[in-house]
Amino acid sequence: MDTISSPEELEDLIGLPLDRVRKKVRTSLSDFDRQWLAASPFCVLSTTDALGRVDASPKGDPAGFIHVLDEHTVAIPERPGNRLAFGFHNILENANVGILSVVPGRTDTLRINGTAQIIRDADFFDHMVVKGHRPRAAVVVSVEEVFTHCGKAFMRSGLWQPETWDPEGLPSIAILAQTYTQPETPLADLESYYGPSYAERMYKD
């Protein structure tokens, strides 16, 4: 492999950004950013531990779930999950985080970089209630950089084009669970667990 090992080599390969690209990076949320977050039901939260090991965690709720506290602060609710909490542990070691916010059907994305803290409760949790459930915690991010990212990756991947989808081409989540974590559990039981009732339990502990 021909490895790049210096900034100079990298610049020779990909070039330097245009001035207008540099200028798109802002330090606070604009009106458009607020509109975007109000329309977005999904994001990926990236964190890094003290040793530089990275975790990227998907977060999703009804559109607008990333709550804007002010032009410099957003909050992401935490819902019941697998309790591994890799991202939370990382934040406790290294507060720097990145958010990639997605709106279905849009090829561009909104990116937010900043520092985070974990909040156990706050008044704004009342605005994050879904199906009667308050979040168990929230990640509050102080915005340092925010910018819109062009849609080339989504366009190249054809992500929003249903004709490219083949979800049945992979083993089901029930098969994966039996293969890796619960080999002793009958597949029929796992298929039942991950069936329609799975969605009904998403906000319950």
Could you give a quick summary of the protein structure above?
With 205 residues, the chain is α+β, with helices and mostly antiparallel strands. The protein contains 8 helices and 7 strands, in the order H-H-H-E-E-E-E-H-E-E-E-H-H-H-H. The chain folds into 2 domains: 17-157, Electron Transport, Fmn-binding Protein, Chain A (Pnp Oxidase, Chain A, Roll), CATH 2.30.110.10; 166-200, no CATH class.
What is the 3D form?
A: globular
Q: What's the structural domain tally?
A: 2
CATH class of the largest domain: Mainly Beta
Q: Within the largest sheet, what's the order of strands?
A: 2-1-5-6-7-4-3
Residues in helices, as a percent range: 25-40%
Q: Could you tell me the number of beta strands?
A: 7
How do the SSEs run, as a string of H and E?
A: HHHEEEEHEEEHHHH
Largest sheet, if any?
7 strands, antiparallel
Measured on Cα atoms, how large is the radius of gyration? Answer: 20 Å
CATH architecture of the largest domain: Roll
Number of helices: 8
Tell me the CATH superfamily of the largest domain.
Electron Transport, Fmn-binding Protein, Chain A
Helix/strand/pairing class, anyone?
alpha+beta
* Low-pLDDT windows of residues: none
The overall pLDDT, averaged over residues, is 94
Could you name the CATH topology of the largest domain?
Pnp Oxidase, Chain A
How far is the N terminus from the C terminus? 47 Å
Strand percent estimate:
25-35%
Model description:
The chain contains eight helices and seven strands. It has 205 residues and is of the alpha+beta class. The chain folds into two domains: 17-157, Electron Transport, Fmn-binding Protein, Chain A (Pnp Oxidase, Chain A); 166-200, no CATH class. A hairpin with a 6-residue loop joins strand 5 and strand 6 (109-119). The relative contact order is 0.14. The model has no long low-confidence stretch (mean pLDDT 94).
